[in-house]
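Batch 3, record 17
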Amino acid sequence: MASLLTRLKQRLDSLAAGSKKALVAYLVAGDPDLSTTLELMHGFVASGVDIIELGVPFTDPIAEGPIIQAAHDRALKTDTSLNQIFDLVEEFRKNDSDTPVILMGYINTFLANKKALESIHERGTDAVLIVDVPGESTLENIGINNSHIASISLISPTTDLKRIAKICQTSSGFIYYVTLRGVTGASNLDISEIEKNIAHIRENTTLPVMAGFGIKTPADANKLSKVADGVVIGSVLVDMIHQQSTQKDYKKIYTYLNEISAVITQ
Amino acid sequence: MDNLIDLPDAEGFFGDYGGKFVPETLMFALQQLEDTYDRLKQDPDFLKTFDHDLSQFVGRPSPLYFAQRLTEHYAGPQIWLKREDLNHTGAHKINNTVGQILLAKAMGKKRIIAETGAGQHGVATATVAARLGLECHIYMGAADVQRQSLNVYRIKLLGATVHAVDSGTATLKDALNEALRDWVTNIDNTYYIIGSVTGPHPYPMIVRDFNSVVGRELREQSVKLFNKFPEAIIACVGGGSNAMGIFYPFIQEPEVKLYGIEAAGSGLETGRHAAPLNDGQPGILHGAKSYLMQDKDGQVIDTHSISAGLDYPGVGPEHSNLKDSGRAQYLAVNDEETLRAFHMVTRMEGIMPALETAHAFAALDYLVETFNPTDNIVINVSGRGDKDINTVATMDGISLD
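Prediction for the assembled complex:
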């Protein structure tokens, strides 16, 4: 069984070996409920998703646009906790030992569960992305002791060259390049700026660079996949999950993901 | 005694508290702000302009006023009032906005945003933006828009746009979330005037420094009026900017006791309150580590206070450090005690305090007996209460329609 840091690294290496781009898909754990999240995770993988990013709901998600904020609220209404999310990943691993899972959330919920975080690699989690921790901090710096999981950092259009160098040094897994000035789900992509900034990042690291925030259409994904090693799709999926949550028919989402997967590997 | 004066450190920490816990996009803007502030705070022209605006636009210094009847009523220490309610726009909040708008101007930012709870900071921000002819957007929780309708109208009259925030608990914390999101989106042309000693570094330091004019004046006024520093200073604490502004110049005077008064809402024992220093745990919200109202899973819990300005689950990081060091003490008084104090001060002194400020007055019931008649204690009258008459009428069961 693939495990620990190596699961993420293996997936990224094998994508690179086949000159393929990664499709990273985000959904909020517990929206509309945890068993649906589990179903969707497997459905995502079957539809071409290479890496899953599980949003950890928080009461005050300051980097999120209205779509993902609302999903956080819905997940919290059913009392989704970080511990239940660790269980969810463990459950997911029973039928999928290869797809890396990243937990993306805010520092206060992680710090409230410090002890449990020390062993999450044993329960199937491969990495964390803590949105409100500056990229030059390591997990250890903020009091999280787990050297088996990757710590993924954000770099944005406003990050200067000095910080890019620092962040590249402390990151592992991959670099998440925020493609716009704004919250998740906004829409003002500037491809030439993105291309230039990703080039700066590549001068500082050999880690893959994924592009996310504001990617909506297959055309967006196609354009970005030409400059990055993969794309992250979030708000669109979260919105579709919500639209379908009453009849729980997620075929549309899987079709969309297949479409994205096809255009980024072209 | 711990070194409590040369803070924050280079990383923005006050002991264990503070820091910069923000999405990456904001890091650049925070650094730019810090660099600008470090340069300008030593610039004689900048300081001259700030002092000029404080005296000519705000109307400083605010008086240190002897509360004759209140002193007689309690028959304890001499009670003095630092009259921030007499400032232009009616509260201490203007001190900070007058300073920060100068930073915005120096940085060439043309668009101003701010969050507000009670509306006082919104009014103070809209005021300084109007004075410079800058575009201004104020974020306010939808629940606060309702209960502070007078201030909402004042903000609009001043030419600013008010955005009612429906998300979360629709109060101050959600207004702050939304203001941060606006800032992330419009980072290149926008200056965010945070209204309290909260948020990521360098804000807690900048807001404290600009508002410290209150404590500096008090040092001079107290010596002039009663030949010594006061034995105690009492101030209400929500985010904690009025308290920090009056405390900071006295931190190195150990004989001056410092009391911060939080909002106990329906009572500390009910859990329905806004008193993180009395009944919270350290956590991270809005960019800084500080005491926070949160559950065991790190989710921020709903707060309650009669006063919109104190209805906030966090508190400025410097207060958390002052609490842990023992330099300041933090008590909490509930809604009922606050309302009683509001009426008493209004009738006894002819001064109608803001409901936020009324918390500081309500604490006299607990504090006066620890002082002698020769002692002098100062209450920071952080703002005036006109904005609260609807809330007070409702609490008293009176309809103003």
